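Predict the holo structure. Ligand: LGMQ2O6W.
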Amino acid sequence: MNATSWVDGADTGPYGLHHLPYGAFSTAKDPAPRLGVRIGDQILDLRALATGQFFLPWIRPAFHEQGLGGFMAMGPPAWRLVRHQLTELLGDARYRDQSETLLVPVAKARMHLPFQVADYVDFYASEHHATNLGRLFRPDSEPLLPNWKHLPVGYHGRAGTVVPSGTPIVRPRGQRKAPDGAIAFGPSARLDIEAEVGFVVGVGTELGTGVSPDDFAEHVFGAVLVNDWSARDIQAWEYVPLGPFLGKSFATSIGHWVTPLDALAAAKAPAPAQDPEPLPYLRETDRYGFDLSMSVRWNGTEVARPPFAGMYWTPAQMLAHMTVNGASLRTGDLFASGTVSGPDADQRGSFIELTWGGKEPVEVGEGSPRTFLEDGDTVTITATAPAASGGTIGLGEVTGTIQPALE
Ligand SMILES: O=C(O)/C=C/C(=O)CC(=O)CC(=O)O
Ligand SMILES: [Ca+2]
Ligand SMILES: [Mg+2]
């Protein structure tokens, strides 16, 4: 198969022919959101392509939807077929003349949520993150709670407040316990980020069934970057004993582009060995994670490089765990890895870890140092992965700027 594209500049950037992520966009001329595939700095309009004879008749309706739901629900045969066709179209210069008119520059597009988020689950799969947060939130106990190595701990988040990258984030208000023990109310003073990787379910399941970790790729369509904004003061007071609630539900940002699993084939990497061995339903025939190198920039300054490959629980184990009780999956379910933190101090995917609870401020350029987020601060998370071509692909970015709290 052709490895190079006729689209100018595509081969040398993070959106070459080996990537082809999907998103939803609109333009000033045509404000209705529609689906597209990214190549270089361009978006190929899939709705326009589906209006012609390009896709098979049974696939076309999916590309007349505003989001990826219909296409994702069709499953791996449709995903592979479309990816193959798009690779041909964008790789073979003979198609250039007829397809060039269907390209829209990214700079001219407004991006929307790529899919309607059905349910949103957030895990806690980094041993380093869980250990750090244990030390910070529960200094008098063992940092890792006894269940942590037996199951991927998680919680159900709020699907309706998942927003596309670039959406302004209004500082949440809420209750917290002041150091003197008084109950205070007001804007969060410890607003934080969580750099995560999310996985999107394409093919759902029936209630009362479960999914084996070995069937991960039969259900999961692709990956997207996630920032699980977290108000640590609200969280610390409210979370006992039922877990995160309003400290995290005010907003969760996701990237504009969903990277198909096939584009991550070259990024598969052995996941850490597990001790103790988990129960049979969590055992994988072929245990792997993904070698994604993440970067967190705070007002433009890179403050962390979290490594996703070291996550203790794999996405396949997360999927098996969230369905083992018979809970069904729906197209558009989003499950995120939890904060990605590595063993080193500059590999921590949240600011509560990076600044060690606000005790060790970091420099982020003008107006710094910082402990937690100030109004006007911008955080941008990016990630790269090895590509089949030997180069890298980029998973885009998830960015957001903090707005003042409501009066
Ligand atoms: O340990 C705690 O009480 C809290 C942990 C978190 O806030 C982390 C969380 O939301 C899951 C994650 O992103 O890893
Ligand atoms: Ca989280
Ligand atoms: Mg959140």
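The mean pLDDT is 97. The radius of gyration is 21 Å.
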